[in-house]
Amino acid sequence: MMQKLLFFFLLWVCFTNLAQSQSSLPKIKVKGNQFVTEHGKTIVFRGLNMSDPDKLFNGGHWDKRIFQEAKNWGANVLRFPVHPAAWRRHGKKNYLKLLDDGVQWAAELGMYVIIDWHTIGNLRTEMYQSDNYETTQKETFEFWRTMAQHYKGNNTVAFFELFNEPTIAKGQLGTCSWAQWKELNEEMIGIIRAHSNDVVVLVAGFNWAYDLTPVKDNPIQAEGIGYVSHPYPMKREKPWEDKWTADWGFVAKKYPLILTEIGFCTADEAGAHVPVISDESYGDAITKYTAALGISWVVWVFDDRWAPRMFSDWDFTPTKQGKYFKKALLEYNK
Q1: Nearest-angstrom CA–CA distance, 124 and 145
Q2: Regarding beta strands 127-128 and 120-122, do their DSSP bridges make them parallel or antiparallel, or are they unpaired?
Q3: Per the count of CB atoms within 10 A, which of 134, 166, 235, 251 is most buried?
């Protein structure tokens, strides 16, 4: 009898600790043009993109060590990019285990999580930039149904980013109007809300998640959402600030805005490619611009291979942008 009582006591302790770790962070909500805690405190999120959990797991690096390092660099939010091909390859059950571990480690270290369906292309025509991003409307809707059910009530998972980088690639991936894109996003939001999940949903614009100009006249019809832009340095020529305001910055006056990918590398660095080639002047411009408007941001990417990378080895030796944004995170997230 005593053994049974001890067993059930230990089981209760286990579930209690799990529940506490999942709910220890205050819930994030939308209030006007800000992200706020359930107690009304405004939060500006500044953090790091992990590489795909599947990629890190296969390389032996999906563990608490990398999360601790992200915390040491000053992050208050982490973005998990889930590639459709990796989701299928690993399988729903196994991939959910990866996400659960990551969410748990983030919670223990006091960092929030963005779950991102990391595809690039045209969801309307189901044409994509490369095989790694291939998905369907049904798979995408099913993914968000799974996430809505699985993470309901988990405060650490503060954001669902519905689609990483929408683009028609100048017509090479077919056509999609803003009205059609808006309808697809509202469908996904409806599925999430039907499962009584009030997570903050993030919606990106066209041109590889850069252009939010249609929001001015035809915003998404849903509550509790924020907008996304990926303003890499080569999207526009210097000086950037007035162009940023016209293309996406204006949104921050009315809605919460988070730049879920920013970053740079010089032309001679490993992995240099359009549109990320620049230098620390971009870092200065984007951090000052966002600070003035209360815009959140997440740097791409906390990895030693994917570019623009933030460290060069698994001793976490910072690259040029790694040094820059580590300093910025520690200063801005004091």
Answers
A1: 19
A2: antiparallel
A3: 166
Query: Helix count (H) and strand count (E) of the chain?
Result: 11, 14
Contact of 99 with 61, CB cutoff 8 Å:
no
What phi and psi values does residue 156 have, to the nearest 5 degrees? -65, -40
Residue 56, H or E segment? helix 53-58
Residue 14 confidence (pLDDT) above 90: no
How far apart are alpha carbons 43 and 290 in whole angstroms? 13
Once rounded to an integer, what is the mean pLDDT over residues 103-109? 98
Residue 13 has pLDDT above 80, yes or no: no
Pairing of strands 157-161, 120-122: unpaired
Instruction: Identify the pLDDT of residue 24.
Output: 85
**Which amino acid type is present at position 60?**
G
Alpha helices in 80-224 (DSSP H): 84-90, 92-108, 137-150, 178-194, 206-209
Q: Terminus-to-terminus CA distance in the chain, angstroms?
A: 52
Distance separating alpha carbons of residues 305 and 289, to the nearest angstrom: 28
Contact 85, 131 (CB under 8 A): yes
The per-residue pLDDT for 3 is 52
Each residue's pLDDT tens digit, 299-312: 999 999 999 999 99
Please identify which residue in the block is written with the tokens 């993470």. Answer: 151
Closest CA to 254 of 293, 286, 310: 293
Q: What are phi and psi of 106, to 5 degrees?
A: -60, -45
